[in-house]
Amino acid sequence: GAVVSQHPSWVICKSGTSVKIECRSLDFQATTMFWYRQFPKQSLMLMATSNEGSKATYEQGVEKDKFLINHASLTLSTLTVTSAHPEDSSFYICSARWAAPPYEQYFGPGTRLTVT
Amino acid sequence: AQKVTQAQTEISVVEKEDVTLDCVYETRDTTYYLFWYKQPPSGELVFLIRRNSFDEQNEISGRYSWNFQKSTSSFNFTITASQVVDSAVYFCALSEVGTGNQFYFGTGTSLTVIP
Lengths: 116, 115
Fold this sequence. Notes:
The structure holds 2 protein chains of 2 kinds. By secondary structure, chain A is mainly β. Chain A has no helices and 11 strands. In chain A, the strands form 2 sheets. In chain A, strands 2, 4, 5, 6, 9, 10 and 11 form a 7-stranded mixed beta sheet that branches. In chain A, strands 1-3-8-7 form a 4-stranded antiparallel beta sheet, with no helix packed on it. Chain A is globular. In chain B, the strands form 3 sheets. In chain B, strands 2, 5, 6, 10, 11 and 12 form a 6-stranded mixed beta sheet that branches. Chain B has a 4-stranded antiparallel beta sheet with strand order 3-9-8-7, with no helix packed on it. A two-stranded antiparallel sheet of chain B has the order 1-4. In chain B, strand 8 and strand 9 (about 75-80) form a beta hairpin.
């Protein structure tokens, strides 16, 4: 199956700093990538849909100025958590969608963010 | 309204018992896909199965089997002769063509297999 990578796999940052998470589709081109957030013992919640070459679409309640998404190429999307706070500590998972039917989505291994 | 419902929050079984994880979905699309994922403590989602809405055949893969019934909007997952390595959180998910194949995840069922 297709492979999606995320970097870093885990990161610890201080409150007030920014952190960037990369999502790459390694062996296919993805015009659309998705970013999810998962708090402990909860399900995955879609944060935003990232389309190559255009602005991301954010889900209700997700601050677009805090969670900056850039999808500059067909294989890379980045999520930057700006001015991170402890409540942003979570598990962030991206997925990349195949560009043709059945538009299969492949999930990355996730990035665990801890804000101290 | 929740599109995917996994009513069982936590299940514990003794090793070698069979266990069924329930999943009920809601959609108005005629074309959709249903998935099951396993999430071990490491966090990485492990793909288990995908079914499309036009294929109601039940499927068996080793100790895993899936029962898809459109009449009851259910897509249940059974593990036969459970093993300790099956302990994980299992998510059922729905992808609708009409919403750009966005994934809707259930709340997950945490399965603990006791040795």
